[in-house]
Write a structure and sequence with these properties.
73% helix; mainly alpha; 6 helices
Length: 135
């Protein structure tokens, strides 16, 4: 399974990550009145968004070959990148009408990122009996 992902990583990993991340940025750049409500708690939306982002980002960092250091430490780099993006996103929302920068939102982002990577490591890797995907 991972060999297949590695051979087709541009289409199966990198493009979904790019599109997902762009969608997150677009949705958080819209005034709050412009974004349809999905009927769940705002913090759960933050959690779910960063769960998905970290899942895709961890997969991408694990499959890249340009930096052995990043590949070996994909877990840590994913958490650093996702957390930093969460912080930037919260600060960015200060200038968006109807949005605000809240520490609790950043906390939900970071928790979503942590559990997204943990989910990937525990469930996904065990299901597919990972062969050479690092840490």
């Amino acid at each position: 399974m991972f060999n297949y992902l590695e051979r087709n990583k541009v289409v199966l990993v990198y493009l979904p990550l790019i599109f997902y991340w762009l969608l997150l940025f677009i949705l958080t750049s819209l005034p709050s009145q412009s974004v349809p409500s999905v009927g769940v708690n705002d913090k759960l939306e933050h959690f779910a968004a960063f769960f998905g982002l970290s899942f895709l980002l961890y997969l991408a960092l694990s499959l890249q070959k340009k930096s052995p250091l990043v590949r070996k430490n994909a877990f840590l780099f994913t958490l650093i990148i996702a957390s930093f993006y969460g912080l930037l996103d919260e600060l960015h929302q200060l200038i968006i009408p109807g949005r605000s920068c809240e520490l609790i939102d950043l906390t939900a982002d970071i928790l979503g990122a942590i559990l997204g990577v943990v989910f990937f490591k525990i469930v996904f890797l065990k299901l597919f009996k990972r062969e050479e995907l690092p840490a």
